[in-house]
Structures are given as C-alpha cells and as structure tokens.
Design brief:
By secondary structure, this protein is α+β, with helices and mostly antiparallel strands. The protein has a 5-stranded mixed beta sheet, sandwiched between helices. The mean pLDDT is about 95. A hairpin with a 2-residue loop joins β3 and β4. The termini are far apart. The protein folds into 2 domains: about 120 residues, Beta Polymerase, domain 2; about 90 residues, no CATH class.
C-alpha cells in the first residue's frame, strides 16, 4: 500500500486546509505490524472553524485507523513545550523524524524552530534528580521485602520504568512511555538496556535488583535519610 497517497487522501477529505502533513510512527519507519495505525502530524492556521488550536483524534479511513495530531502554530507551540517539560516531546519528534506528505518548505520552517531544542536534550535539575533517586531507593527497599508475587511484579515494573528514565535523563536523553521507553534506552546504550531488561524478563529478582543498584550508583547513589521534598 502507498501510505503517503492514503495519507494525502485522508488529509484532503478531513483537513483540506492543512499546510503541513507528516506521516510518522511505525508506518513512516517501515516497521508496521498487523495492528499498527497511521500516525499523522497536521499543521495549519485555518484547520479549525471553532477557534480551537489543537486536536488529537482517531479516525477510520479506507480501512485504516488514523491517529491524528493537528495544530495551529500556536497550538503546536503549546503542546510541544508541554512535551519538553515532561521530557517526552512526542510531536516534535514526529515533526523531525516523519515523512513529508504535504508542505515540505513549511515543515522545514517548523524544524528550524524546534530542532535545536530537541537536539540539546533534557536538562535535569539536581533537585529532581535527587527525587528520582529517592523514589528508586524506596522502591528497591520495598522490592527486597515483598513476598506477594503480584506486588513483586508491579514493583519490578515500576523499578524498570523509573530506572530507565533516570538513565536517560541523567544522560540528556528524552524519555518515552510504554514500549517507547525501552526503545529509547536501547538507542542510547544497547548493552545497559539489555542488562536491565534481561533479569526483569527472566524473573531473577535478585539480579534485577542488583542491576538497578548499579544504575542508581551511576546516577549518584541512594537517597533516603534527610531528603526533603
């Protein structure tokens, strides 16, 4: 299937005023699965008749599910900056990494504005870094004592997420949610990503805890007594 053509037909029907249409996600990367949807970033100053500046919505078109993120320039700025604040600039990554369907020149203008901030990576304040280490310290202590298998599983998952985020953020790398978090970690350091994941997947709780401790020490070590938040 020619997904660029399908995306253009979708935009022509639902967002005819769009000045920029970018195909993103697994469809753009060529890694689609049987359940993949089509992610589209859509930009334009006259997209909305009701005065709104942004829209995130799901459509079905020509048998495909479309996940649409549509913005005026003001709306894009608001949500892009919110993503940076949360260390997950998803729509900026769509802008930078996707495939142009419409509006190549206008897309380049947006990229010139947002690429420097994205490429700089996140800067973690010392107070937040300490808080994140405190959370991992507390989870590790809970993990060492837990006996209920469901509780152990939940804590292990939280430990993985918090540790992976700490590794990325202390190395000026953006984080992700869900499946994108281990992908971001593997992109940064495949060996460290594999080491953290291996014992989580195998269920070797002691070795998983040891790997978390290694990463915690790399980030500055345990935080507990005297910590104020």
């Amino acid at each position: 299937m020619n997904f660029l053509a399908v995306a253009e037909r979708f935009a022509a029907q639902h967002f005819p005023e769009a000045s920029v249409v970018v195909l993103a996600g697994s469809t753009a990367r060529g890694t689609r699965t049987s359940t993949s949807d089509i992610d589209l970033l859509i930009l334009g100053e006259t997209l909305f008749a009701d005065g709104r500046t942004s829209l995130a919505a799901t459509y079905r078109f020509e048998g495909e599910v479309f996940e649409v993120f549509a913005y005026t320039e003001e709306g894009f700025s608001t949500w892009a900056n919110r993503g940076f604040e949360q260390y997950r600039p998803v729509i900026v990554q769509m802008l930078l990494d996707g495939v142009t369907v419409r509006g190549a020149a206008e897309r380049e203008r947006y990229k010139d504005v947002w690429s420097p901030k994205y490429e700089a990576g996140p800067s973690l304040e010392p107070s937040e870094a300490a808080f994140r280490r405190y959370v991992i310290t507390d989870l590790l202590d809970d993990y060492s004592d837990v006996t209920d298998p469901v509780e152990r599983h939940v804590i292990a998952t939280l430990l993985y997420e918090r540790t992976a985020e700490l590794v990325l953020l202390t190395n000026s790398r953006w984080i992700g949610t869900g499946k994108y978090l281990p992908r971001r970690l593997a992109e940064f350091d495949p060996d460290r990503a594999a080491a953290l994941a291996a014992h989580l997947v195998s269920g070797d709780h002691d070795l998983f805890a040891e790997q978390v401790k290694i990463e915690l020490d790399r980030a500055g070590g345990r935080v507990q007594e005297g910590f104020q938040r």
